[in-house]
Amino acid sequence: MSIEGLPGHWAEASLGDIVHKLVDGSHNPPPKQSSGFPMLSAVNINRNKIDFTENYRLIDGPSFAEEDRRTAVVPGDILLTIVGAIGRAAVVPAHIDKFTLQRSVAVIGPALVDSKFLCYQFEASQFARYLTDNARGTAQKGVYLKTLASAKVRLAPLLEQRRIVAKIEELLSELDKGVEALTMAREQLNAYRMSILKSAFDGQLTRVLRRKHPFSLISADQLRNQLVQASLGLYRENLRKWNSMDRASRPSKPRLPEPIEPVVSENAQPFPLPNDWDWAPLSWLLSTTKKAMTTGPFGTMLKKQEHKTFGVPVLGIENIGKAVFVPGNKIFVSEEKSKELMAFAVEAGDVIISRSGTVGEICEVPSGLGQALISTNLIRVSLNPNVIIPAFFVFMFQGGGSVRTQVKDLCKGSSRDFLNQSILGAIKFPLCSLDEQREILKILNRQMSYVEVLTDTIDTELNRAQSLRHTILKQAFSGQLVAQDPADEPAPVLLERIRAERKKADAKKQAARQRELRTKRKTPHEHV
HEC states along 117-178? Predict the structure, then answer.
């Protein structure tokens, strides 16, 4: 990393030249203890602070003493994350509880350099780019200490370093206040969004509207009877077609439809609904004209070697955005293979739900997509348009109400959340008339659009704040943030003083090691 545009009274140095300590944390952390001293990792270095609220392991006294001797963290040292989330830095304050570190954090002890000057420089784009470009590793990238020691740093006169730090902190303090206000506004918007969604599906959003224009949901028994008759009608039609086929080529015989569950009993209802609403099992909402629910192909049904770079798209989790369909595909299959997998085809109006990763993310398949299949990570649900509108169903999964809570509760109990058809079938859905669903969707679309516009505005401002932070640091370490003072000791002179001090310190260490060796040689003879 070479330095361009260095002010004339500044100096260039390798990091290893201006520090008296450069070590990383434990490569082999001892087993976790139920009590003891904190052993921090990269997650505990955030926003230039050491954060003890994040998870960390505890180690016992003897293990801590051994690690503490090696890292010897003291106030004024700089902690720099060098594995995973590379480049976050914090200065160790004067008063802090004892702790030690895991391998993902390096301890840097500056010699005659302002610690905060160096800490902020680590975040500046010039230094951050060097760390990113020189990170190595496969599963998780990291920066070796030798590479870190070779990094070039900008050294200003010592008094100018302090002026730069003061100006950086003045500007960043104001910037952080703005970021905090924007972050709070975004959280409030999200809370408002959750509140609107909750009121939409407990009947409160349209309470006033129902008084003026009553909506009538047919009784649960009538609805169930209609669904039973529709399912039986479809079965009889499919059976008639099957009987008319040539015996040698016809598929397996159609099966009688599954019984449609009775109304959800009052004891099993998550909470009371308005009189003209009802709780419905999923089976009431499903299409009666085709197989209504399926999980994507798994195992040998779709092998990796059958993936193509073009052909019929296979939808995955990446196609589900914030309750909207995201176009674009990673996997395709041939036309021939798609015919084998027709049971996993999707159509416009179908709903796809993620069953792994971010469980329960959902969207409606748009019109104009053409032929497409689902991957093993998705569940396809085809709804009955005479009972529920797909967009209404999608909104129910977005949080703020009973359905999302049920999904989370039903997915618990395994090593990771995983959604399946049985879990979906166990969910109870709040159901109202189609007319009221349409009115709810009008209100939700209007309110969600408002929330989305404000959220985008806040995100834009947060991005601007981040860009401004980078600009401040860039100016600081190119000599443009504060005025220079000709009376300051030039940085090249300061660098020579640092080297002289380090030479003395190295000589003392060498002398101490030699005394220790002489003592060890004498000790056995003293006992003879």
Answer: HHHHHHHCHHHHHHHHHCCECCCCCECCHHHHHHCEEEECCHHHHHHHHHHHHHHHHHHHHH
